[in-house]
Amino acid sequence: MTQATAKRNIARMRKVLVVDDDPHIRDVVCFALRRAGFDVTEAADGEAGLLAFRREKPDLVILDVLMPVIDGLDVCRSIRAEALHGSEGGGRNVPILFLSSKDAETDRVVGLDAGGDDYIVKPFSPRELTARVNAHLRRIDALDDPGTSRIAAGPVAMDLDAQSVDLTRTEFGLLATLVRQRGKVLDRENLTNGAYKGNRVVSDRTIDSHMRRLRAKLRSTGIDPIQTVHGVGFRLDAPASDR
Question: Structure pTM?
Answer without folding.
Answer: 0.62
